[in-house]
Amino acid sequence: MQPDYDDCWLRYDEVPDGDLRESYRRLCTHAYVAEESRELGAVREELRRGLGGMLGRDPHLWQHPPRTVDGFLAVGTPGDMDVVAQAVDEDEIADLDEGGYVITTSEWEGIDTLVVTASSDSGLVYGTFHLLRLMAAREPVADVDIVEEPASPDRLINHWDNPFRGSMERGYAGQSIFDFERLPDLRERYRDYARLLASVGINGVILNNVNTQIPGREEGNEAMEELEGWRLLETRYLEKLTGLASLFRRYGIQTYLSVNFGAPEKVGDLDTSDPNDSEVEQWWAQKADEVYDLIPDFGGFLVKADSEGQPGPYNYDADHVDGANVLARALEPHGGRVWWRAFVYGSHKDRAVQQYDTFEPLDGEFHDNVTVQVKNGPIDFQPREPISPVFGQMPETDLGLELQITGEYTGQHVHACYHVPMWKEVLEFDTDPEGHGKRVKDLFTDEGTGMAGVGGPGEDRNWTGHYLAQANLYGYARLAWDPDLTTAEITDEWVKQTFGTDPDVVETVTEIMHGTWPAVIDYSTGGIGLMHMMYNGSAYLENHYDPGPEEWPGYTGITEDGIGKDRNSKGNGYAQQYPEALAEMYDDPESCPEELLLFFHHLPWDHELDDGRTVVQTLYDNLYAGVEETQRLRDEWRTLEGEIDDERWRHVAERFDEQVEHAGVWRDRLSEYFYEHAEIPDEQGRVPTDD
């Protein structure tokens, strides 16, 4: 029975008649695949799906090399198969990083052979998906020679799932795909999710929301307690996770959990969770032993501590090193890792300042199996932020880059917003252009480092709430694997696999995708460094979809005299957290990049920018330009009617209608808000005045 959900980029549409189809059939109709592990079972299943769909016939899977054919596909390690050993240099394969693979062509006993090989079974999984990706994009495979290794050793998804409620945080893509109460029973959708992740090189999944308790809940309310993710450390739930972990294992994906720092009290009935208490240390060690007895390849713990109502070491007059290291010591005998989030705020009026002040002095003190997970910017996944000053300035600490796949502040998957161009801006950033720094992308290549994408699909038919938002999951994973890939390369891959290879469709969808992020920046911020102007509401019922700039004067710095916040030497000194060359650039409004100008500087409304326009006029113009661009993108999408299937065309068209309407809401509210304070009319008369 066909699942009632989308195939995303694993559609495997049949290749039309022609030379390419014949070439694919000659090399891939027959496949000889090793059978030594469960991962290779996943390889065989995927070849049946992919080759069967694209070639219009099921492949013949052999247990030995076929001798009566014109060509065949061989998948295995050199140690598994002589066919492979003859085609490659075994030492070169052995030297590949974990997950690396080779795709090449050779000849065996006069028969053309297409070879996928690796030193590990996970590499064979990734290599198989790469081959199928080439074929789905209609690339030739008759003379390939590809060597691939992942840049980041850990490439994780941080799920925003709330166990037991069956919900996703914010709910942008429907309910959670995971039903924790019914585990260890497995749904077919879990397998298809694992396939999606493995196809783009993800090797770790944190199953539950990093917010593992609800701040302010009524103590003793058992119904509320049943909603909270900290309970996943209870034995009864750990036992339920074994089947899901086994399924992910087939695709080279490790299972992780978000854990509550107060678990020794909540789960273990201790009277403290003090990381320097010997009984607490013993409890964590025993709990780690229990976890690994059930899930031998368990990846480790993700922890959010001392932030947004989650408990942490500060509750016990300890610091983040104390908190992270007690968990690290428990996991170390099993090869597990602690991912300790650096997103903390509350003790400073401006959250931008606190992260560096908190963590940079601790550099070099974290245990070897601790990764400090740092968001790309200092605020919270805004449409555009400066790069966190933590990057490049904690050389003795393993760091992880946290990016948000979910569009929390970019339209919540109602609006189309392609995050890959934003992430490329982050990854290419030079952390110390006149010193010994590295680009951000170069910080996550050593053992213990990596990337973490926050979000995860939901139960919606399209997985992500918006068909175009699938590209953010795809693009995040591809960048985690290879941050040197360009936006254009990733977009081209995704569009061809998702919507087909018709040149006009590819060109139109690509142009739309590349236009979405700049438009969102313009209509939701004004485009010159403002951010955090959304409606909030009550705790844990935040809207974050509608504009609410009046709630955040501390972030906008708005007054009758001007707008922006002095995060510079005249203000709170945030700019001085960067190395000297960057600090000097950000500290002077004449050299500060215009796209970040009001983040670093409070400027008069009539301050002139390089093009002669004033600050307030630039804000007005950008707000209106963002809406106009969104209207243009909607119109471009409408030209695709009849060129792609009606379901996906209609869904995206309707979403664009809502986006245009809602972008206008943002434009009108922000422009009115700016006028209310500046009392300077729009030169083009678009903004209502009191006159």
UniProtKB/TrEMBL annotation:
Residues 136-463 form the Glycosyl hydrolase family 67 catalytic domain. Keywords: Carbohydrate metabolism, Glycosidase, Hydrolase, Polysaccharide degradation, Xylan degradation. Residues 464-686 form the Glycosyl hydrolase family 67 C-terminal domain. One of its GO terms (biological process) is xylan catabolic process. Pfam families: Glyco_hydro_67C, Glyco_hydro_67M, Glyco_hydro_67N. SUPFAM superfamilies: (Trans)glycosidases, beta-N-acetylhexosaminidase-like domain. GO terms for molecular function: alpha-glucuronidase activity; xylan alpha-1,2-glucuronosidase activity. Residues 8-131 form the Alpha glucuronidase N-terminal domain. Coiled coil: none annotated. InterPro entries: A-glucoronidase_C_sf, GH, Glyco_hydro_67_aGlcAse_N, Glyco_hydro_67_C, Glyco_hydro_67_cat, Hex-like_dom2. GO terms for cellular component: extracellular region. Belongs to the glycosyl hydrolase 67 family. This is Alpha-glucuronidase. The lineage of its organism: Archaea, Methanobacteriati, Methanobacteriota, Stenosarchaea group, Halobacteria.
